[in-house]
Amino acid sequence: MKVFDRPVSDRMRIIFCALVSAFIIYPRIIDLPWELPRFTTRSESVEHILFFIYRYLFFGLLTWMLLSFNIRRPPARTFGKRLLGTFLITACAYIIYVLVSLAISKHVDCFTGLLLFQFVVACLICTFTGHVFALYSAQRAHEREIEKLKTENLQSRCEALAGQINPHFFFNSLNGLSALVRNDRKKQTLKYIHALSEVFRYILRSDRKGLVQLSEELKFLDSFRYLQEIRYSDKLYFNISVPEAKQNRLIPVLSLLPPVENIVKHNTVDSEHPMKVSIFLNERDELVISNPVHEKIDPPDQNGIGLKNLSDRFELLLNRTVRIERRDGCFKVYLPLA
């Protein structure tokens, strides 16, 4: 049982019942100072006070029972059924009250309109409280279901977007490995295979991840950049400058792969146009991936996943936007961190 997403403790219910009981017998409370002087003996005054306490405790117990009955009822129960069940409990309680009062010769007010009104008030207050609680519980359950569906939908979309990276990267990696094998460069081939296995291990595990620490992405990039440096015969350089204290910040998994692949896809990388990629944090704690622009004579098709995929995943996981800037012959991608 919850109200405003906090558990309804026994202490809270006791306080509620105490207040409601005081409200119900309020006329008796204000009449008590005027009734006591009418008694001639001390024993009669004590007896009257004890009966007053009994009446207060009786309504407190009744309110506890009615409140527990209504709170524990299924939220789908209609107001009419809830009211009927509460009325039957109240009627039984009234009969018990009358029988006890008759047994102790305190039957003066048993059949008065005031006593009947007090039982009706207890019945209605607890019924409405339980009904409001049920409506709120049903609304919260509906909202939680919607949030769950939204989360599952976002997770599915994110996994689909991340999954598109795998085949795109796979064929490029095989091309680099084929070149090493053809040139019979055994030592570099073994190191390339080791780096490639690290990269694929990270990519395969990415399906089970959403956000990762920046240090994990940089470690992945360390293996990936070796593959690229071999592929482009040391004409591609990386300058990574990220303070270690900032590497515990969070970022969507595989965030560094699309910008780096985008660099080699859209730029000429050769001895005349060496490519130096700089990765650093700016004053806004954004991870900046910067490179000079050496446009290819024949631009590649623009139908890849690229930065659009990256931007979509940041929107899904961080609700933040990836900024892209091209100015003064330099292309920069700004990745916000969590």
Folded structure, characterized:
This protein is of the alpha+beta class. It is 62% helix and 12% strand. It has helices at residues 10-24, 26-35, 42-71, 79-103, 113-163, 165-182, 186-205, 214-231, 257-266, 306-317; strands spanning 2-3, 6-7, 211-213, 236-241, 250-252, 275-281, 286-292, 323-327, 330-336. The strands form three sheets. It has a five-stranded mixed sheet with strand order 4-6-7-9-8, covered by helices on one side. A hairpin with a 2-residue loop joins strand 1 (2-3) and strand 2 (6-7). The two termini are 34 Å apart.
Short note summarizing the structure:
With 338 residues, the protein is of the alpha+beta class.
Descriptors:
338 residues, alpha+beta, rod-shaped
Question: Topology, pairings included?
Answer:
Layout: E1 2-3, E2 6-7, H1 10-24, H2 26-35, H3 42-71, H4 79-103, H5 113-163, H6 165-182, H7 186-205, E3 211-213, H8 214-231, E4 236-241, E5 250-252, H9 257-266, E6 275-281, E7 286-292, H10 306-317, E8 323-327, E9 330-336
Parallel strand pairs: 4-6
Antiparallel strand pairs: 1-2, 3-5, 6-7, 7-9, 8-9
> Which of globular, elongated, flat, extended, rod-shaped describes the shape?
rod-shaped
The helix/strand order is EEHHHHHHHEHEEHEEHEE
Q: Could you report the average pLDDT, rounded to the nearest whole number?
A: 76
What is the total tally of β strands? 9
